[in-house]
Amino acid sequence: MFDVTDTPREGHRNPGAPGWRERVLRYKWALLALLLCQVGQVTASLLLPSFSADIIDTGISGEDVSAIRHFGALMGIAAGVQLVLSATAVFIGARVAYRIAESLRADVFAKVHSLALSQVQGFTVGSLITRCTNDVLQVQTMLNMGLTVIVIAPIMGIGGSIMAVRQDVQLSQLLLFSVPILALIIGVLTIRAIPLFQRMQKQLDGVNSILREQVQGIRVIRAYLQEARESTRFGAANTDLTGTALRSGRLMATMTPSLTAAMQLTSVALIWAGASRVRAAELEIGALIAFLSYVALILISVMMMGMMIVMLPRALVSARRITNLLRTPVDVGPPSAPKPLPPRSAGLHLCFQDVGFGYPGAEAMVIEDITFDLGPGEVLGVIGATGSGKSTILNLIARLDDPSTGRITLGGVDLRDIAQTDLSSRIGYVPQKSYLFSGTIADTLRLGNPEADEAALWRALEVAQAVDFVRALPEGLLSPVAQGGGNFSGGQRQRLAIARALACDAELFLFDDSFSALDQVTDHKLRTALRGAVREAATVIVSQRVASIRDADRILVVDKGRMVGLGPHDTLMQECPVYAETVRSQAQPEEDAA
Amino acid sequence: MSANKAVQLDTVKRLPDGAASSGPKAPGGAIAGAKPKDARDAMRRIWEAFGNNRTTLVISLLLSVGSVIGSSIGPWQLGHATDLLVSDDFTMSALVRQLLIVGAIYLMASSLNLLQAWLINDLVQNMGRDLRKAAQAKLARVPLRWFDAQPDGEVLSRFTNDIDNMVQNLQQVASQAMLMLLTVIGVLAMMLVLSVPLAAVALGGIAISLGVTRVITRAAQPKYAEQWRETGQLNALVEETFTGQTLIRVYGARDRVDQQFAEQNGALANVSLRAQILASLIQPTMMFVNNLAYIAVVVFGAIRVLSGGLSLGEVQAFIQYIRQIGQPISQLGSMAAQVQSALASAERVFELLDAPEMSDDPASETQLAMPVAGHVQFEHVGFRYSPDQPLFEDVSFEARPGQMLAIVGPTGAGKTTLVNLLVRFYGIDSGAIRLDGKDIATLARSDLRHAIAMVLQDTWLFTGTVHDNIAYGRPDATREQVIAAARRCHVDDFVRTLSDGYDTVLENGGGSLSQGQRQLMTIARAFLLDAPILVLDEATSSVDTRTETLIQKAMADLRQGRTSFVIAHRFSTIRDADMIVYMEAGTVRETGTHEELVALQGGYWQLQHGAQS
């Protein structure tokens, strides 16, 4: 039956994951109470026809008005009990559904924040957001519905049958025919409809995403004269979608009329079957009428279940997407036995040994055989073409991903053995995209170091060449930052992101093409200030601009994922043709107006 | 029981209902609780949208009427059977005849209902398909100005959410609301025929339950609003922290974010529960009222039977009616909301379909002589985006066949607009743009655009394979041709690192590629097109200089015999141009070669100089 245990069924298929069964069983007492309430309220509503049978049989047949009043009062009490019990049941059901959703959301949230970068890219941020918001909501709705509506159907079916048998055993045999027919109708229709609904959801998403692309790419489509092709592409998706929608819609449209017909014909058959026994006074007419009510009650609950089941596929898809995410093993899991980093005073040595990284299934590695080391106070420049794997090197140092081959050590400890909090406290990282968190400027700067005082923040801003524009803001450090930093220009965002890294008391700084939005003058000033500010720290600067890295102690030249040079600028100019060529391509950096 | 479903449907409607995998929708977006501005007009448009199927719609309405008549008189006729059972002139054959009549009525009612539901389903789904098709076709006909005037998200929301919402609600409403409304009318009529006092009791019950629902819904409204606010805040937090996931990890801010999330998550659950306390009262209360009406019918009915005012069969029919009417009544409320929502969406969809369209290509189409030489002239071109803000007043320049023309100037000078005018993304207000001496306004847009390969500032890739993306302008290109173009544009190297090489499907518009890689792909796309005119709008801004140098060599080859327009910030890109057009605030200030403009020591020289100091 499609009660709440249908969702936990997922759990059987994925041992090890925080199972649905476990999640639901956490509320076993609440669920037990809910079940009792539902049984109670169903019983109360089933008593009503039975009392009305008494009214007819003793009251009318016996011409006894006081009996009518008596049973009428009993009916009133039953209705009152049912009111209280069903309100309680609905409330408990909602509570359990909301609490489960709350914990699901928390688990998804925690899971996402432990994923490796490549895993996040694999899922895509958008889909992760959907899983944490919309998908959880779908599951919550389904649970709520399951506990308050769908669960009634089996109780009503069983209870109704018991009451029917109590009224008259012989007539009840009719239910042996009609109930299976009802079940069959629902079963066949839903079993056929569920895959259709799933497909329809996918096709609808497909149609919508094609449209999204077409709106966003309107210029390209027009410039390349591909309007007809896009129409065809859309038309095909649209036709597919409509085909599925038509079929699933027809199945669902069949449900109500056929169930109604089955129930109505059952009531006709009841009168026919009971007729001779009523005439022979073996069956009271009130019992027959009560029987009609039972059939109606059973049917209504079954029909309601049928209607709710329509929503099941969507919730199941959502549940599956959540399960998939929660079951994903974390590529950059925490160490089982974390090893401590050397004390701060010692400084940190970073060491790459034959490090390689590739996406599973890819023909070529993104980077391969990278070996270098970097001591405290040293600066390593990394230069290479677009897509040569420069950023990947930084991502590996920050342990956003783990290397596929080789190993990286920091202070002599393998990165995989360092607790994330230890690692975080030693690293200051400026990403390629200067994403700022909303709040005040002070909030956004304190990301890595919540205890940083104002003086420290101003010092960081000063090095990052951001003092002038922050000071010019009417509210200074308390000025608001919009999500992502959208209320600042690209260059300002980049400088705030640098200040944010500097505000961490870090010993290893990573700059991922972090000066690209700055003009040459600011770039130069910033790098000069940086040298003074991070004297004891090790620094890795990734850049496409020769000017940004030519003063580094050593420069790592990456080409197509491989290391083709490592050394200071002058040496590389002699020995590394790729580097020399890059420098030549930027030979007149003073002519660059970026 | 009957009220149960109504409440649940209502709750579902309040939940954000976006396509499961198409990203989060703004909480409490346009759909929730929207009201149409002009309901009558929207209805008329929907009626028109049914087009040729209007007859079918009317037929299905007639079928509903038939079906409801059947299910209304059914219980009454079944009551006759019961009366026959307890009466003195009972014969089995009379009973069977009566039961056969009832059975036939019921079967007829259900068959009509089935037929009606199928018809409506097909009608509405086909209308949905036609609307989606019309909306998509509209895309190709609206001018870009229209797109500029509203955010993409807004347009998309109308295309997707609104059409979806409209179709879903219309189907529900058309297949059920009519049936329910008719059922209520039919059953009430039957009740009145049977017994006025009992019908009054039933009506009283209906009035009370409607009143109670209204009161509770009103009281719950602010709680729901609060729930939506909390949902919105939580979603914003999720979106923000997921987008900045790497930062949170590297900066060790997990604990703080977790704590913030836990607080908001708990707050949401609590607020939702508070809203639910009230909502959970609706359904049991409705059921309670319905039960009271049922009890009243049984008790008063029984007393009336004793006094001879009613027959037993009539009381039985009444009991069935009371049960039959409960569900539709409780659902009509939510149906009204659905109608409103459907109409509001319909209004937004029709607004989209009514958007002004581009002028057709001129009737007397001038033909371009083939092959196109690529002689482009801008003659006193004037253009403005909005009437009160002229962008170009009088722009003139010329690119001879085979020349490379660079357009330079500070941000906002109108460089991109200029090339957009060349491909007629926008029509000009005065002057003329000529291609091989022909005014482009007199050419068919397709002829004009066939002559131009364009690399736009936005690096648009679609969900499809790398191959298909590169071959976008030439779907018939072979794999060899695609790879050759990819090699020349340095796309080949990184394509090989992808899991399926050229058959890798780029999801989310190639979201996993870097901006530089995307730019290279779009350049390869233009390369493959092999058109007489090449337009490069900041085509290599995110590509590293060394790769750029390499690409420029390839582009220099490509430019041979082609007229090219290049917009770039990097002077290294521009220096070799045959002519440089230096623009400021919509005006051409200087034209000439690099050397000439440097010698002039004007704006071009300053822009370059400014980079130095």
Written account of the structure:
The complex is a heterodimer of chains A (594) and B (613). Chain A is of the alpha/beta class. Chain A has two domains: 4-195 and 253-327, Up-down Bundle (ABC transporter transmembrane region fold); 348-587, P-loop containing nucleotide triphosphate hydrolases (Rossmann fold). Chain A has helices at residues 9-13, 20-25, 28-60, 65-112, 117-123, 125-150, 152-167, 169-216, 218-223, 227-279, 285-309, 312-327, 390-397, 420-426, 441-445, 454-463, 467-472, 490-502, 520-533, 546-549, 569-575, 577-585; strands at residues 350-357, 367-374, 379-384, 405-410, 413-414, 427-430, 439-440, 480-481, 508-512, 538-543, 554-559, 562-567. In chain A, the strands form three sheets. A six-stranded mixed beta sheet of chain A has the order 6-9-10-3-11-12, with helices on both faces. In chain A, strand 4 and strand 5 form a beta hairpin. In chain A, helix 7 (152-167) packs antiparallel against helix 8 (169-216). Chain A is elongated, with a radius of gyration of 35 Å. Chain A starts with 8 loop residues before the first helix and ends in a 9-residue tail after the last helix. With 613 residues, chain B is of the alpha/beta class. Chain B has a domain at 376-612: Rossmann fold. Chain B has 20 helices and twelve strands. Chain B has helices spanning 2-14, 39-49, 54-86, 92-139, 144-148, 152-194, 196-243, 245-250, 254-306, 312-353, 415-422, 445-450, 466-470, 479-488, 492-495, 515-529, 545-559, 571-574, 594-600, 603-612; strands at 376-386, 389-399, 404-408, 430-435, 438-439, 452-455, 464-465, 505-506, 533-537, 563-567, 579-584, 587-592. In chain B, the strands form three sheets. Chain B has a six-stranded mixed beta sheet with strand order 6-9-10-3-11-12, with helices on both faces. In chain B, strands 2-1-4-5 form a four-stranded antiparallel beta sheet, with no helix packed on it. In chain B, helix 7 (196-243) runs antiparallel to helix 9. At the A-B interface, helix 3, helix 4, helix 5, helix 6 and helix 8 of A face helix 1, helix 3, helix 4, helix 6 and helix 7 of B. Chain A: This is ATP-binding cassette subfamily B protein. Chain A: Residues 350-585 form the ABC transporter domain. Chain A: It comes from Primorskyibacter sedentarius. Chain A: Residues 32-314 form the ABC transmembrane type-1 domain. Chain A: Keywords: ATP-binding, Cell membrane, Membrane, Nucleotide-binding, Transmembrane, Transmembrane helix, Transport.
